[in-house]
Amino acid sequence: MSDLMLSVGGRDYPVTCRPGGEDRLRRIGAALDEKVRQATRALGDMGEARQLLFAALLMGDELLDLREKAAPAEDPEVPLLIVEFARRVEELAQALEGRAATS
Asked: Higher pLDDT residue, 34 or 75?
Protein backbone atom coordinates (compact mmCIF):
# COMPACT_ATOMS: atom_id res chain seq x y z
CA MET A 1 0.00 0.00 0.00
CA SER A 2 1.09 3.55 -0.68
CA ASP A 3 0.54 6.42 1.73
CA LEU A 4 0.01 9.97 0.56
CA MET A 5 -1.45 13.24 1.79
CA LEU A 6 -4.41 14.90 0.07
CA SER A 7 -5.29 18.54 0.65
CA VAL A 8 -9.04 19.13 0.50
CA GLY A 9 -10.69 22.34 1.62
CA GLY A 10 -7.50 23.64 3.19
CA ARG A 11 -7.01 20.55 5.33
CA ASP A 12 -4.57 17.67 4.81
CA TYR A 13 -5.82 14.09 4.93
CA PRO A 14 -3.56 11.03 5.05
CA VAL A 15 -4.84 8.33 2.70
CA THR A 16 -3.67 4.93 1.57
CA CYS A 17 -4.05 3.42 -1.88
CA ARG A 18 -2.83 0.53 -3.94
CA PRO A 19 0.65 0.90 -5.41
CA GLY A 20 0.37 2.65 -8.75
CA GLY A 21 -2.88 4.38 -7.83
CA GLU A 22 -1.25 7.50 -6.40
CA ASP A 23 -1.66 9.76 -9.45
CA ARG A 24 -5.30 8.83 -9.91
CA LEU A 25 -6.04 9.40 -6.23
CA ARG A 26 -4.28 12.78 -6.36
CA ARG A 27 -6.44 13.77 -9.36
CA ILE A 28 -9.59 12.67 -7.54
CA GLY A 29 -8.48 14.60 -4.46
CA ALA A 30 -7.87 17.70 -6.58
CA ALA A 31 -11.34 17.38 -8.12
CA LEU A 32 -12.87 17.02 -4.65
CA ASP A 33 -10.90 20.04 -3.44
CA GLU A 34 -12.26 22.10 -6.35
CA LYS A 35 -15.82 21.04 -5.52
CA VAL A 36 -15.30 22.03 -1.86
CA ARG A 37 -14.11 25.44 -3.07
CA GLN A 38 -17.15 25.77 -5.36
CA ALA A 39 -19.49 24.87 -2.51
CA THR A 40 -17.80 27.36 -0.20
CA ARG A 41 -17.99 30.13 -2.81
CA ALA A 42 -21.68 29.43 -3.39
CA LEU A 43 -22.79 28.86 0.20
CA GLY A 44 -20.24 30.69 2.31
CA ASP A 45 -18.20 29.35 5.17
CA MET A 46 -19.49 26.09 6.62
CA GLY A 47 -18.20 23.20 8.67
CA GLU A 48 -15.95 20.51 7.27
CA ALA A 49 -18.70 17.89 7.14
CA ARG A 50 -21.05 20.17 5.20
CA GLN A 51 -18.23 21.20 2.84
CA LEU A 52 -17.55 17.59 2.00
CA LEU A 53 -21.27 16.77 1.78
CA PHE A 54 -21.92 19.55 -0.74
CA ALA A 55 -18.76 18.67 -2.67
CA ALA A 56 -19.97 15.06 -2.87
CA LEU A 57 -23.38 16.25 -4.05
CA LEU A 58 -21.78 18.41 -6.76
CA MET A 59 -19.63 15.48 -7.91
CA GLY A 60 -22.64 13.17 -7.76
CA ASP A 61 -24.62 15.60 -9.90
CA GLU A 62 -21.88 15.55 -12.53
CA LEU A 63 -21.66 11.76 -12.35
CA LEU A 64 -25.41 11.42 -12.74
CA ASP A 65 -25.38 13.75 -15.76
CA LEU A 66 -22.68 11.61 -17.38
CA ARG A 67 -24.56 8.39 -16.63
CA GLU A 68 -27.81 9.78 -17.97
CA LYS A 69 -26.07 10.75 -21.20
CA ALA A 70 -24.46 7.31 -21.47
CA ALA A 71 -27.53 5.25 -20.45
CA PRO A 72 -31.05 5.31 -21.84
CA ALA A 73 -33.44 7.34 -19.65
CA GLU A 74 -35.66 4.30 -19.17
CA ASP A 75 -32.85 2.38 -17.44
CA PRO A 76 -34.44 1.18 -14.16
CA GLU A 77 -31.03 1.17 -12.45
CA VAL A 78 -30.60 4.97 -12.58
CA PRO A 79 -33.11 5.81 -9.78
CA LEU A 80 -31.64 3.05 -7.63
CA LEU A 81 -28.14 4.46 -8.16
CA ILE A 82 -29.34 7.89 -7.09
CA VAL A 83 -30.90 6.52 -3.91
CA GLU A 84 -27.76 4.53 -3.10
CA PHE A 85 -25.53 7.53 -3.77
CA ALA A 86 -27.67 9.74 -1.51
CA ARG A 87 -27.55 7.10 1.24
CA ARG A 88 -23.76 6.90 1.05
CA VAL A 89 -23.37 10.69 1.08
CA GLU A 90 -25.61 10.91 4.15
CA GLU A 91 -23.56 8.21 5.93
CA LEU A 92 -20.36 10.11 5.09
CA ALA A 93 -21.80 13.38 6.37
CA GLN A 94 -22.95 11.74 9.62
CA ALA A 95 -19.56 10.12 10.15
CA LEU A 96 -17.75 13.38 9.51
CA GLU A 97 -20.08 15.32 11.81
CA GLY A 98 -19.51 12.73 14.53
CA ARG A 99 -15.76 12.93 14.06
CA ALA A 100 -15.85 16.74 14.07
CA ALA A 101 -17.84 16.73 17.33
CA THR A 102 -15.19 14.61 19.06
CA SER A 103 -12.31 16.81 17.85
From this structure: 34
